[in-house]
Amino acid sequence: METKYLFKRYKTWWVKVAVPKEQRNELGYDLRQSLKTHDLEEAKRLRWDVVESLKTKIKSEDSVGIIEKSKDPIEVYVPPTDTAYNQYYHKVVDCQHACPAHTPVPEYIRQISQGNYNEAYMLNWESNVFPGILGRTCDRPCEPACRRTRTHEKAVAICRLKRVTYDHKDDISSLMPVPEKSNGKKVGLIGGGPASLTVARDLALIGYQCTLFERDPKAGGLMRTNIPSFRLPEEVLDEEVNQVIDLGIKTEFNSEIKSMKKLLDKDFDAIFVGTGAPKGRDIRIEGREEANKNIHIGIDWLTSIAFEHTKSIGKKVIVLGGGNTAMDCCRTAIRLGAEEVKVTVRSPFDQMKASEWEIEDAMGEGIPIHDNHVPKRFIIQDGKLVGMEFEKVEAVFDESGKRSLVPTDEEPVIFECDDVLVAIGQDNAFEWIERDIGIDFGEWDMPIVDKVTFQSSNEKVFFGGDAAWGPENIIWAAAHGHQAAISIDSFCKNQDLYKRPEPKTTLISQKMGVHEWSYDNDISQAKRFLVPHADKKDALKDLKLEVELGFDEVTALEEAQRCLNCDVQTAFSEDLCIECDACVDICPTDCISFVHNDSEENLRNKLRIPAVNLNQQILVSEQLEQTSRVMVKDEDVCLHCGLCAERCPTGAWDMQNFLYQEAKVYS
Amino acid sequence: MTYIVKPKNHHPLLEKNKLGLTRRDYEGAVSTLCAGCGHDSVSSAIVEACFQLSIESYKVAKLSGIGCSSKAPAYFLNQSHGFNSVHGRMPSIATGAAMANHELTYLGISGDGDTASIGVGQFVHCARRQLNMTYIVENNGTYGLTKGQFSATNDLESKSKYGDDNLFPSIDLPTMAIQLGASFVARSFSGDREQLVPLLKAALSHKGFSFLDIISPCVTFNNHKTSTKSYDYIREHNDALSKPDFVPLGKEIVTEYPTGSSIEVPLHDGSLLALEKLSQDYDPADKIQAIKNIQESQRDGKVLTGLLYADPTAKDLREILNVSDKPLNTMGKSELCPGSEKLEGINSGLR
Question: Residue B277: what pLDDT?
């Protein structure tokens, strides 16, 4: 298998080698070691040495006498799945596993369906700090992972349900944790975006004194400056940013840090850099200088609108770029009064970087997207920008899959314009960090940051969010923030930074009666519900009128019912099984098979329906008493309907709720 | 008993048969039998067999009497015809229906009480007459519906769940069926799908009276330590005669058997039941040997399973009676009742 011996924790790849049964008392179920890399290819290369060394360790622990017994059963047979290993069931909860901050999605969706919006909000707040903001703006890595996408349906509208927790909650101030009393340690946070705010929240709660430095007059970072208020209303942003600041964070607004050296001289015990990727990329083509007055860098332009420095734009506007910033730019331009806005992008339409729904929304507002258009020059007449010339291209892929954009030899295309918005990417900017203060920089002039600890080569300085490894999105920043906070706490206590705290997990049977579960196991056949939008005519006139209106309570309830409760696990006890096959017969998706054990590949192939999705685990039992077979369950399309447990005469199957809470520095 | 409806969602890679249907299309309502009941496994094996044979559900009539087993037809093939008859009277209903319309596939589901006690007379004549049907007994050796009394197939040495002794010897239905002239007789176990599905497919393809005695444990009343029809007892004492492999029409046998160890039973529709012999004295065409095998295995305290006896050349009831090829239910009144003139003619011929 491609990822044999490998598994992922947070973003980091680890190696895991199973321990033979007879040595488990001494060594545990398996031996693990971090490869300290996020890159799968690199992990694949690095793994063999580590696997060798772990295997040697197992062998050396093994006394000479019992070599005979362990004739490598690992290679031939799949050992029983260790469900006590906390990542096994976690991986079954696809949405939570895919979320960088590991938000317990099914748990909060169940709270929504019970009308407990406050509890649902707090579950989110603990994991991702900004439920109201993310419920409107998240990049939603959870949704493509949703099990519903594998059972022929659209994903549960997880992101919109997150928004429901914000929209329908009451006053939650009594639920907010109270910070512990000061521990005397001081942490400086540079940049007031989601990464810094997350670090600040986590550390403030356990008594750290945090000081936040922000160059703008308010905190929020790109959430404030780059996301227009028709997508994210200011009051939502203010509320959730202030929730953090009100925990006792010292703020220094309008104070851009110009020298890291000077900051290091102040008495901070640790410094966190969460300055994002604040430099919009410019375009260097003919006419750029002359037309300067009418060419705007996308993110700077959005910032000046957020702070109400810019209030108008020309009649005809071209937006360059195919990412989410480009989508925000074109929709903002229309609201500022532009009459003809178009987006041009170099790549083909289906390779645009923007999220599908953002593209849909832009096109829904009547903005055309011209793909395969490479900008060639700005056209100036009488010293004024009047248009742009584009070359038409097509994408050609070479054998290694590398893309190149090849001109099609068609006539150049000319679009008229008064203003151009450049949204073709953004970069980090670390001119303010002196290069002689122990912070090493590597490729692309980026600081070298440890992928597990987020620590730089100056042990006092930590990086996270876009500042660490380039542009990602808000949910990644929050995930980085939690990890950096853990590292900063360990650092301040002189503890080993590589010793990461374990997540908290609980596994509780849901059985209430003979056929009664404490979760709703009926599978909703409803299609994904659409979210209502504000009237287009009004929306296009008002920069601050929120376009998406969010689910009302009834729709939220219906959509919540679509969740398959993947966190309610099918737990199997082989000692109770009488091999009656009732579970095999009832399973609607043919997940369960009783077969003779084999190598993983063979085992996967001989199931009732072969388990071909290698990204999904198989649950293998101990050998069964009557027929010496093993029970194998393919986790891929299990609906978690609990019918196996309902049809089981002996309770060998049980439905158990697995709650996985990612470790935070506060408990 | 289950409260939710089985979700209609199925595995995206679920196989389709010649009719473009999946196995799920052959299912019925969700079972209301006890969780773990062997009958549900039999239902599931029937679903699998009908799916694999690409049978059109609406051309099947499922008939039953009374008992847990006789509830089972509700749980498979929900698009076929069904008749839940009086206790033990399923064979008469089947005979009437099959005589009126022989173009349907007749599948009778009965239990040990329904067949070996109250309905034993009906069963006997149905087998003797070679009615073209598949007759399944879901045999659990107990009256589950009335809470665990001994049935007529319960073995002498088997005690009840509550410790009572069984005072009477058991009726061996396959032996009876062979003696009565059934032309396809097999015994199987609900917990052995690999054996059961090919046997079901062959039984459904056989013309004449196919009889299947399926040991189907009652988890609630007859799955205890002193039972001889429990899951673990059958698994421990199962004495399989052969490994069956159903070969559909036009397909070649791909499995290679060592010389002399395989037997082929040709079926009327051109398909084939290939059997890998597991016992030296096995010959399913030899009636006397078949009965001998059953008796010997019984003596040795084993449960003989597999195809016990088959005569693919035997005539069925319609051939014996020389009934019209045109189903009676498609004939008009004038054909069915030719009138007094014809009667006069017949009468005068007898004078």
Answer: 78
What is the DSSP-derived secondary structure letter of residue B279?
Answer: S
The pLDDT confidence band at residue A383, using thresholds 50, 70 and 90, is confident
Question: B48-70 b/e with 16+ CB inside 10 Å = b?
Answer: bbbbbbebebeebbbbbbbbbbb
- Report the complex ipTM: 0.87
Please write the tens of the pLDDT for every residue from A144-191. 999 999 987 899 999 999 999 999 999 998 999 999 999 999 999 999
Angle CA A629–A635–A636, to nearest 5? 125
| Structural domains present in chain B | 23-321 (3.40.50.970)
CB-CB neighbors (< 8 A) of B13 in chain A: 609-610, 612
B258 at A interface, C-beta within 8 A: no
Chain A residues touching residue B38 (CB < 8 angstroms): 580
In a 3-state reduction of DSSP, which class is residue B272? strand
Q: B102 and B130 in contact (C-beta within 8 Å)?
A: no
Which helix (H) or strand (E) segment holds residue A604: the answer is: helix A600-605
**DSSP letter, residue B79:** T
Burial B102-135 (b: 16+ CB within 10 A, else e): bebbbbbbbbbbbbbbbbeebbbebbebbbbbbb
Q: Residue B30: closest CA among chain A residues belongs to which residue?
A: A586
Mean of pLDDT values over A308-321: 91
Of B6, B11, B15, the CB nearest to A586: B6
Residues 6 or more apart whose CB falls under 8 angstroms from that of A440 comprise A447, A448, A456, A457
Instruction: Look at the alpha carbons of B93, B98, B100, B104 in this order and tell me if their dihedral is positive or negative.
Output: positive
Cα–Cα distance measured from residue A615 to residue B323, given in angstroms and rounded to the nearest whole number: 61
The amino acid at A517: W
pLDDT, position A62: 61
Strands B209-215 and B242-247: unpaired
Chain B residues in contact with A517 by the CB 8 A cut-off are none
pLDDT exceeds 50 at position A114: yes
Nearest-Cα residue of chain B relative to residue A149 = B12
Q: Rounded to two decimals, what is the model's pTM?
A: 0.82
Interchain contact A579–B (C-beta under 8 A): yes
Confidence of residue B260 (pLDDT cuts 50, 70, 90): low
The percent of residues in chain A predicted with pLDDT above 70, rounded, is 96
**CA torsion, points A108, A192, A304, A291, in degrees to nearest 10?**
-110
Dist CA A17 CA A24 (whole Å): 12
User: Could you tell me which residues are beta bridge partners of residue A385?
Assistant: A380
DSSP state of A215: S
8-state DSSP, A441 = B
Q: What is the pLDDT of residue A341?
A: 94
Instruction: Give ∠ CA A665-A108-A549 in degrees, rounded to 5.
Output: 115
Query: Can you give the pLDDT at residue A657?
Result: 93
Q: How many CB pairs under 8 A join A and B?
A: 107
Which chain B residues are within 8 Å of A515, Cβ to Cβ? Answer: 1-3
Candidates A154, A581, A625: best to mutate against B (most CBs of B within 10 A) is A581
Give dist(CA B320, CA A625) in Å, integer. 50
pLDDT score at A67: 44
The residue behind tokens 């969706």 is: A109
- Please compute the mean of the pLDDT values over residues A31-35 and round it to a whole number: 80
pLDDT at A495 over 50: yes
Report all structural domains of chain A as residue ranges with CATH numbers, in order of start: 1-76 (no CATH), 186-278+428-492 (3.50.50.60), 280-427 (3.50.50.60)
10 Å CB burial of residue B92 (0-12, 13-18, 19+) is middle
Q: What is the mean pLDDT of residues A624-639?
A: 92
pLDDT-derived band of residue B1, with 50, 70 and 90 as boundaries?
low
